[in-house]
Design a protein that fits this description.
mainly alpha; disordered N terminus; rod-shaped; 5 helices
Amino acid sequence: MKRALKHGLPVFFLTAALAMAQEAGGAPAAEAGDPLLMWKWINFGILVLALGWLMAKTLPGAFKSRTESIQKGIAEAQQQKKDADKRAAAVDQRMSALGTEIESFRVQSRLEMEKEGERLREETAAHIRKLEQQATVEIESAGKAARRELRVYASDLALKLAEERIRTRLNADTESALVNNFVADLKRQESKN
């Protein structure tokens, strides 16, 4: 019994075995009717002690390994929970900053649109000035050409008008007088030469 206690067998099993033996009454085997009854009880006690010893040897290690695996699982779950909390906090932070980012994008795009609008206005104004300059040059050259054509036309008209006036003033007698004067002038010049 001291040996069983030394190996850590539960006292319950020992007391249960002793109690069973005392219930038998400690009566001689002949009185109980079965000559092997005492050996059966001894065999039962040995079996209980062996089972208790076997359980004392294996169960603490099994419980210890099971406890370690449970603790390891709890530690892993706590680490996963911490990681999940960090990710959730990061997502919450990004979600709270999302409104600010959207507003900054709006402001930035509005500024870019205003700059682009100003650039287009300046580009359009420069193009209009260029077109106006081209139109001015074309108008001036068209005006010069029209004046030139007008001068030519006016000189043609003046010549025709002068010719008509001269023809109307000249009649057949004046013409013959002019021709005779011309011929006389030629003769005089011929004689001088």
